[in-house]
Design brief:
Strands 1, 2, 3, 4, 5, 6, 7, 8, 9, 10 and 11 form an eleven-stranded mixed sheet that branches. The protein is mainly beta. It has two helices and eleven strands; from the N terminus they run H-E-E-E-E-E-E-E-E-E-E-E-H. The relative contact order is 0.23.
């Protein structure tokens, strides 16, 4: 039983951050009658003068493949595998999160139009191919940061 005037317990900031990210960039696919959900969470880019990298968490309910990326702030954008080599595509298995992270799979941005500083926003355009072969472009607005957004939030909760 709830007392009159009592407030619900506050939702931790980390949970709010994750929930907001999960819905901020969700897009429904409709290919050959199949429907799936693709989500981009916590997109961020490291500061850089000539080149940098972009990171994020990608989810697909029906399976998809990240086949390309572009950015208006980079002369060249490419997908890198876990060993740092350029790869043609990154698999996004159904129901599993794929985390693009430093020293792992990630997006490389080269020939930057201008130095990227902390706090700036970087537009990215991801090209996704569904399991059925349909292609979709997803616009992502990534913040230039020194660390992963969730890492900063976790540090704030350590005692």
């Amino acid at each position: 039983m709830r007392r009159v005037g009592s407030a619900d317990p506050p939702v931790p900031r980390l949970h709010r951050l994750l929930a907001a990210g999960a819905f901020a960039f969700a897009l429904c696919f409709d290919a050959a009658g199949a429907q799936g959900l693709f989500a981009v969470n916590q997109p961020w880019v490291r500061p850089g003068a000539r080149a940098t990298e972009a990171y994020m968490v990608l989810n697909s309910t029906s399976g998809a493949t990240l086949i390309g990326v572009r950015s208006s702030v980079a002369g060249r954008a490419s997908l890198l595998g876990a060993r740092g080599r350029t790869v043609p595509a990154l698999a996004l298995p159904a129901g599993r999160s794929v985390t693009l992270r430093p020293s792992g799979e990630r997006i490389a941005l080269a020939r930057l139009a201008h130095p990227l500083k902390v706090g700036e926003r970087v537009p990215l355009l991801l090209t996704i191919e569904t399991a059925e072969g349909a292609r979709q472009e997803i616009a992502v607005d990534a913040e230039v940061r020194n660390t992963w957004p969730v890492e900063a939030e976790l540090r704030a909760h350590r005692h």
